[in-house]
Amino acid sequence: MRRILSLLVFLQISIFYAEAQKTGFEEFNGPYAGWANVKQRFGVKANGSADDTKGLEKALDELTVTLMNFNKDKDPYVTVYLPAGTYCISKTLSLRGKMGVNIIGEDPEKTIIKWVGGDDDTMFWANGSAYFKVSRIKWDAAGKKNIKGVAIQWKEKWNDGKTRSFASLNIEVSDCSFVGALQNGIIGGTYGGQGEDGTGSNDSEITIRRCSFFNCAIGIVIRGFNALDYWVWDCRFVNCEIGLRNKHGNYHLFRSHFYNSKLSDIVNIEAIMFQLEVAIRKMPISFW
Length: 288
Fold this sequence. Notes:
Strand order of the largest sheet: 1-3-6-9-12-15-18-21-24
CATH architecture: 3 Solenoid
CATH class: Mainly Beta
CATH topology: Pectate Lyase C-like
Helix content: 10-25%
Radius of gyration: 20 Å
Oligomer: single chain
């Protein structure tokens, strides 16, 4: 009887652990006729060797912004679509002054943006953009030092009549993975002042869903002094030094899993409020 009970307990634990390791990507709907296919429209190669920085940046720069009547007349689009392939970039991709747009990959495992530039840089920077979605992309730092994956940091205010900046709010990063020893997978917020460029304005309602962070120094960094409501759902943090680090503001962490964190799963520094519902944790939460 004991052997049967032990076997049942072992099977239940094994099934639970296996379920925790699954990455349940959302079902893909698309591409649609109105999406801008970067291979067809902007001539990017996605062959793992050609530098696709210019083509990808052009696709981002020409995204339609209805509020500003920007690029509404000739073949407008609000979704950039990346078919499966490896897109090499050597400079930061900048999403500047955009609202209501999407950057979507075909396959979260096979749509790869790979960093081929130098150390100490950022792969994707959202500056003064809001209500946008980045989804189904693998961000690969390729072992370069101090590389940030996705940065949501409003560093300057402007309105030149053609484009303008927006506060960083209502943003979704979903079904993405962060690999290649990134310094930070996702980083949000700026202080402004203190020797740092930044508006110091809040970044709010940021949703991070079904993302995986592998071998990052820190998977997610929340650092704006007025960060409000980061929602982290169904994510995995594997072999990171720290899974999530919160400097200020508040966040909600649900149904996420931490494996082999080297320092701590979660670090809170002057956190206003946080809410946790975590399935598997192997390291403590730290308050600094």
